[in-house]
Design a protein that fits this description.
The chain has 3 helices and 5 strands. It is an alpha+beta fold. The chain starts with a strand and ends in a 6-residue tail after the last strand.
């Protein structure tokens, strides 16, 4: 089971997205985004371990402004997921 991160523009956006997913039965948590992923050192993300594809589709349909998606690799680094490739 891999950790997935969905970057959000603000804490409010991350909380809104989390509530939407919760209503859909998907467990996620709001976490500070790792500095190496944001460049600026500030930002929030949703952390998910299950149902990532379903969560991603729900967020896209709801027009909640989220950003890049990442998966935590076995070596401890995050790899960006390409939006053009089906996940």
């Amino acid at each position: 089971m891999s950790q997935h991160l969905i970057l959000c523009r603000s804490l409010t956006t991350a909380q809104r997205a989390q509530r939407l997913l919760e209503r859909s039965g998907i467990v996620s948590s709001v976490v500070k985004a790792p500095q190496e992923l944001t460049g600026a050192g500030c930002g929030y993300s949703l952390s998910l371990y299950r149902h990532f594809e379903e969560a991603d589709a729900i967020l896209q349909r709801s027009n909640i402004a989220t950003g890049k998606r990442f998966v935590l690799m076995e070596d401890g680094r995050f790899r960006e997921l390409n939006h053009d490739i089906p996940r």
